[in-house]
Amino acid sequence: MISQRFIESIVGLFVLIAMLALLVLAFKVSGLTSFFPGKGFTVTAYFDDAGQLKIRAPVKIAGVQIGEVKRIELDPVTFKAIVTMRIYKKYNDIPDDSSASIMTAGLLGDNYITITPMYSQAFLAQGSQIQYTQPAIILEKLIGQFIYKLGNTDKEEQHEKP
Protein backbone atom coordinates (compact mmCIF):
# COMPACT_ATOMS: atom_id res chain seq x y z
CA MET A 1 0.00 0.00 0.00
CA ILE A 2 1.18 3.55 -0.84
CA SER A 3 1.97 5.70 2.18
CA GLN A 4 0.19 8.99 2.87
CA ARG A 5 3.49 10.87 2.84
CA PHE A 6 4.34 9.65 -0.69
CA ILE A 7 0.93 10.74 -2.04
CA GLU A 8 1.30 14.19 -0.44
CA SER A 9 4.78 14.55 -1.96
CA ILE A 10 3.48 13.69 -5.45
CA VAL A 11 0.58 16.16 -5.11
CA GLY A 12 2.96 18.87 -3.86
CA LEU A 13 5.31 18.27 -6.80
CA PHE A 14 2.37 18.43 -9.23
CA VAL A 15 1.17 21.74 -7.71
CA LEU A 16 4.70 23.19 -7.92
CA ILE A 17 5.03 22.20 -11.61
CA ALA A 18 1.59 23.67 -12.36
CA MET A 19 2.51 26.97 -10.67
CA LEU A 20 5.75 27.20 -12.67
CA ALA A 21 3.86 26.47 -15.90
CA LEU A 22 1.34 29.23 -15.11
CA LEU A 23 4.18 31.66 -14.33
CA VAL A 24 5.88 30.94 -17.67
CA LEU A 25 2.53 31.29 -19.46
CA ALA A 26 1.82 34.63 -17.76
CA PHE A 27 5.21 36.03 -18.83
CA LYS A 28 4.79 34.80 -22.41
CA VAL A 29 1.26 36.20 -22.76
CA SER A 30 2.11 39.57 -21.19
CA GLY A 31 5.20 40.04 -23.35
CA LEU A 32 7.21 41.22 -20.35
CA THR A 33 10.02 38.85 -21.13
CA SER A 34 10.90 36.22 -23.61
CA PHE A 35 12.44 33.05 -22.26
CA PHE A 36 13.13 31.78 -25.75
CA PRO A 37 13.90 34.78 -27.96
CA GLY A 38 13.88 33.99 -31.66
CA LYS A 39 16.97 34.41 -33.74
CA GLY A 40 17.25 37.54 -35.78
CA PHE A 41 19.27 40.64 -36.50
CA THR A 42 19.12 44.23 -35.29
CA VAL A 43 18.70 47.36 -37.39
CA THR A 44 18.42 50.99 -36.31
CA ALA A 45 16.49 54.00 -37.52
CA TYR A 46 16.56 57.68 -36.50
CA PHE A 47 13.19 59.39 -36.00
CA ASP A 48 12.46 63.08 -35.39
CA ASP A 49 9.69 62.08 -32.98
CA ALA A 50 9.10 58.59 -31.57
CA GLY A 51 5.73 59.58 -30.07
CA GLN A 52 4.49 56.94 -27.62
CA LEU A 53 6.49 54.10 -29.18
CA LYS A 54 7.43 51.51 -26.56
CA ILE A 55 9.93 48.72 -26.24
CA ARG A 56 8.53 45.41 -27.59
CA ALA A 57 6.21 47.31 -29.97
CA PRO A 58 5.69 45.34 -33.18
CA VAL A 59 7.58 45.98 -36.39
CA LYS A 60 5.37 45.15 -39.39
CA ILE A 61 5.39 44.90 -43.16
CA ALA A 62 1.94 44.87 -44.79
CA GLY A 63 0.35 44.18 -41.40
CA VAL A 64 2.51 41.10 -40.71
CA GLN A 65 4.73 41.27 -37.66
CA ILE A 66 8.36 40.76 -38.69
CA GLY A 67 10.07 41.90 -35.49
CA GLU A 68 9.88 44.12 -32.44
CA VAL A 69 11.37 47.30 -31.00
CA LYS A 70 14.32 46.42 -28.82
CA ARG A 71 15.55 49.82 -27.58
CA ILE A 72 14.71 53.54 -27.84
CA GLU A 73 17.41 56.09 -27.05
CA LEU A 74 18.11 59.78 -27.64
CA ASP A 75 21.03 60.81 -29.83
CA PRO A 76 22.84 63.50 -27.76
CA VAL A 77 24.12 65.29 -30.88
CA THR A 78 21.09 65.42 -33.21
CA PHE A 79 18.41 65.02 -30.51
CA LYS A 80 16.64 62.40 -32.59
CA ALA A 81 15.22 59.14 -31.28
CA ILE A 82 17.38 56.13 -32.12
CA VAL A 83 15.12 53.09 -32.42
CA THR A 84 16.77 49.66 -32.45
CA MET A 85 14.63 46.88 -33.89
CA ARG A 86 15.11 43.13 -33.87
CA ILE A 87 13.95 41.60 -37.15
CA TYR A 88 13.16 37.87 -37.14
CA LYS A 89 15.71 35.74 -39.01
CA LYS A 90 13.28 34.44 -41.62
CA TYR A 91 12.71 38.01 -42.91
CA ASN A 92 16.29 38.54 -44.07
CA ASP A 93 15.34 39.74 -47.58
CA ILE A 94 14.12 43.26 -46.77
CA PRO A 95 15.68 45.77 -49.22
CA ASP A 96 18.12 48.17 -47.56
CA ASP A 97 16.48 51.23 -49.15
CA SER A 98 13.19 50.54 -47.32
CA SER A 99 11.52 53.26 -45.27
CA ALA A 100 10.24 53.06 -41.69
CA SER A 101 7.25 54.93 -40.26
CA ILE A 102 5.74 55.09 -36.80
CA MET A 103 2.03 54.39 -37.05
CA THR A 104 -0.85 54.27 -34.56
CA ALA A 105 -3.17 51.29 -34.25
CA GLY A 106 -6.58 52.94 -34.52
CA LEU A 107 -7.33 56.46 -33.41
CA LEU A 108 -5.90 56.21 -29.90
CA GLY A 109 -4.09 52.86 -30.03
CA ASP A 110 -0.49 51.89 -29.41
CA ASN A 111 2.27 52.89 -31.77
CA TYR A 112 4.16 50.42 -33.93
CA ILE A 113 6.69 50.61 -36.74
CA THR A 114 5.80 49.75 -40.30
CA ILE A 115 8.47 49.16 -42.90
CA THR A 116 7.75 49.88 -46.56
CA PRO A 117 10.04 47.78 -48.78
CA MET A 118 11.59 49.42 -51.83
CA TYR A 119 13.52 47.97 -54.76
CA SER A 120 17.19 47.58 -53.84
CA GLN A 121 18.92 44.26 -54.47
CA ALA A 122 20.93 44.67 -51.24
CA PHE A 123 19.21 43.60 -48.02
CA LEU A 124 19.11 44.78 -44.41
CA ALA A 125 21.57 42.88 -42.24
CA GLN A 126 22.94 42.94 -38.69
CA GLY A 127 23.79 46.55 -37.78
CA SER A 128 22.11 48.15 -40.82
CA GLN A 129 20.47 51.55 -40.57
CA ILE A 130 17.18 52.46 -42.23
CA GLN A 131 17.81 55.84 -43.85
CA TYR A 132 14.29 56.94 -44.77
CA THR A 133 11.99 57.48 -41.79
CA GLN A 134 8.72 59.22 -41.02
CA PRO A 135 8.05 60.30 -37.41
CA ALA A 136 4.97 59.53 -35.38
CA ILE A 137 1.89 61.65 -35.96
CA ILE A 138 0.95 63.14 -32.60
CA LEU A 139 -2.82 63.64 -32.30
CA GLU A 140 -2.45 66.40 -29.70
CA LYS A 141 -0.20 68.43 -32.02
CA LEU A 142 -2.65 68.10 -34.91
CA ILE A 143 -5.57 69.21 -32.75
CA GLY A 144 -3.53 72.15 -31.43
CA GLN A 145 -2.62 73.25 -34.98
CA PHE A 146 -6.25 72.94 -36.07
CA ILE A 147 -7.49 75.07 -33.16
CA TYR A 148 -4.76 77.63 -33.79
CA LYS A 149 -5.73 77.92 -37.46
CA LEU A 150 -9.41 78.19 -36.54
CA GLY A 151 -8.59 81.03 -34.15
CA ASN A 152 -6.54 82.89 -36.79
CA THR A 153 -9.27 82.45 -39.42
CA ASP A 154 -11.84 84.08 -37.12
CA LYS A 155 -9.51 87.03 -36.45
CA GLU A 156 -8.85 87.54 -40.18
CA GLU A 157 -12.60 87.60 -40.90
CA GLN A 158 -13.13 90.22 -38.18
CA HIS A 159 -10.38 92.45 -39.66
CA GLU A 160 -11.89 92.24 -43.16
CA LYS A 161 -15.35 93.46 -42.06
CA PRO A 162 -15.72 97.32 -42.26
- Provide the helix percentage: 25-40%
Note the run of SSEs as H and E: HEEEEEEEEH
Going across the major beta sheet, what is the strand order? 7-1-4-3-2-6-5-8
Uncertain ranges:
none
Number of helices: 2
User: Mean pLDDT across all residues, rounded?
Assistant: 87
Mind describing the biggest β-sheet?
A: 8 strands, mixed
Structural class: alpha/beta
Number of strands: 8
Span between termini: 107 Å
Radius of gyration: 25 Å
Which overall shape is indicated by the principal axes computed on the Cα atoms?
A: elongated
Domain module tally: 2
User: Which band does the percent of strand residues land in?
Assistant: 25-35%
How would you describe this protein?
With 162 residues, this protein is an alpha/beta fold. The chain contains two helices and eight strands, in the order αββββββββα. Strands 7-1-4-3-2-6-5-8 form an eight-stranded mixed β-sheet, with no helix packed on it. The longest helix is centred in the first third of the chain and has 27 residues, at 4-30.
List keywords for this structure.
alpha/beta
In short:
The protein has helices at 4-30, 139-160; strands spanning 40-47, 58-61, 64-74, 81-88, 99-104, 111-116, 128-130, 132-134.
